[in-house]
Structures are given as structure tokens and as C-alpha cells.
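Predict the 3D structure for this chain.
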Amino acid sequence: MPVATSRTTVGGTSGNTATNQDAALDAVCGFAVRHLAAPGAVLVFDETGQEKKGEATAGVGRQYTGTTGQVSNAVVAVYCTYASPLGHCLIDGDLYVQEHWTKDPERCERAGLGRDFTFRTKTAIALDQARRAVAAGVAVDWAAGDEVYGRSAKLRSFFEEHGIGYVFAVGVNFAVPSGVGPIRADVLAAKKVPKRAWNRLSCGQGAKGPRVYDWALVATANPRHHLLVRRSIADPTDRSYFYAYAPPGRSMALADLVAIAGIRWTVEEDFANGKDAVGLDHTQARRYRSWRRHIVLAMAALALLSVIASLDRRDHPAPILPTSPTAEPPADFGQIALTVTEARRLFQLFANLLRDLPTGLATSRMTFHLQWSTWRRRHRARARWHHYKRRLTDLD
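Done. Predicted structure below.
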């Protein structure tokens, strides 16, 4: 995979340190894409945070973070996930620093941001990440993200210019181009979606069953753009909106756009795996250079575990799932494929056994732990089957 030749960071990292960190992050991206690339791949953008105390840590400030679900003193970073039918993992990330930091050059210097630090919005960081991915030759067909990224005209235009489709979440007040001028997303949906236009579809498999909603597609002034509307089955007044673009020659079928909208969950899974399995947010570093070194190493570890899990999943039998609310339990539920967290547990365990024990004893212990892992995965397959049946019962 070609290496991107331009990488913009928040500042303060120079010389060999910056070059080494950039090369390491490019290597993570190249490794992940080399093993996970497949038709229909998606770039997914989102941010996550870590609570902090005090004011010395680079980028720290009072801001909203999904980690706590409220405004708190935290550092926030924007990440990009590469997701394909073969698997997914984080391939890029950088710190988001609030604009008020620019008013205190000395504070920026102490935090390692550099006295010449310039403010970048979250969407500007995402745009830089998208540019690097395209420049590096990353094979991608779609992009996705939440409302923060959906409202960026520059980000959407970039993907359109490069023939990449997108399904971005947008707010109710998003101005959708129509034949009579811009119309709010919620107003346009209310006018253009009759009762018969709703289709009940799953946007992907969740931990406890298919994620099923009612969906509708609304035409806009451009035949390649559509407004995608999602309605909760339990509460029909609960609606979400997505602005979608499909390049010429790409399918604009409702089911295909719904599937892309559902892929957005992969970045949330990467955040959970990154934090639980490789300590993505377990850093007490204050300076930007140290923080960035930590997240690059964490992303490298996550990429390795994601590829291991992906390779196992390719040879794994299709999951046994109920097809109706009245389905009878099978005689054998099978076992779930290897997960990132299980791959991390076994990897660490086996490395310690081989280091601390004679080869023969280490081998016997490894065999035992593999059998224990198999039992756990079979037990989880049984639980998954019953969770899915309950979900089908609720939807019936």
C-alpha cells in the first residue's frame, strides 16, 4: 500500500519523532487495509473521549464526550475506522483541541502543541484523515458518520469529488435541497413519506438480535442524493435522518443505503475494544507527543487483534440463528467466531506461558485454555440464539 505523503497534526511534534509516529500510523493503516480490504468498504468517522482532571493535559477542557454522555473535563480525539465485510479497526486518529487554547501560546507550548498551534474543527480533522486515506490508495466505496460529520459540506464534497458514496446522519434542521429550495429534513419527511412508504429492515446484527427499524427514502433536487429516514418501531415519533449520496453506477436501493447507515456501529465497537482490550484511553500522558505515541501503539495492537479475529471468522461456519419466533432450539448451537477481546486474552496468555514454562508444559496448558475458550464460545452461541429469538418475538 502506498504511504501518504502529507500528514497534518495539531502541532508541536517535529523532527524524527513526528516522522516515526507518522510512519507507524501509516504502517497500521497499511497492515489493516491489506488484510481487511474487500468490496463495499466504508470509512467511518467518530470521536471519543477520556475524562481528565486539571488543565495541564494537551487538549483538555470542558466539552461533551459520549464516554460520559455529558459535558465534563476531558480530552477528545477524532478517529477513522476502516470497515469491510471481512472486519474493521481504527486506522487513523488525532487530538481535537478546543479553540480557546489558541489564546494561550505558552500553555500550548507546555502541552507540546507548539506556540503556532492552529485550531481545527472535528470535521476538519476528519477531512484530513479522509485525504490521507485516499492519497494512500485505501480501497473504499462509502463513508459514514454521525451528525457532526454529516453537516460538513466540505467533507461531503470531498467524497463526491473522489467517487465515494456516503450515508451521514444529519439533524432535523438539516437543509435538504429540493425542487422548491432547501427544506428542513423533518419537514420534508413529513410531507413526502406516506404511510405505505415505510419499509421494515434490519441495518445489521446487534449483540442481541437484528437492529430493525422502519425506513423510508425521500428524493431530493439531485437524483444521486436522497434523504434516508429511520423510524423507531417502539416509538414512531422517534426519527433519525441521514443524507445519502451514491456515485453514478452505484446502487441507490433502500436496503443498500440502510446497510451503510448501519455500519456506523463498527466504530463504536472499535472504541469499546480499543479501550477494553488495548487501553486506548488508559494514558496519563500530558504532552501531545506522548499522548499520540500511546494511541498509535494502541491502534497497532487493535489492528493485529482485529486481523486475527477476521482470519478466524473467514473459516468459521455461518452462525446458527433462529428464523422465526417459534423456532425450536437446535441440537448443536455451534460456537461464536473468535472476537477481538478473546484473541487478546489468548495472545497474552500464550505469550506468558511460552516465556515462563518449559515447552512441553506450556503446550499442555495452552491446550487446556483453548478447550476452555471453545466452551466459552459455545456457551455464548447458545445465549446468542436465545437473545435473537427473544428479539424476533418482540418484533412479531
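The chain has three domains: 1-141+264-315, 147-259, 318-395.
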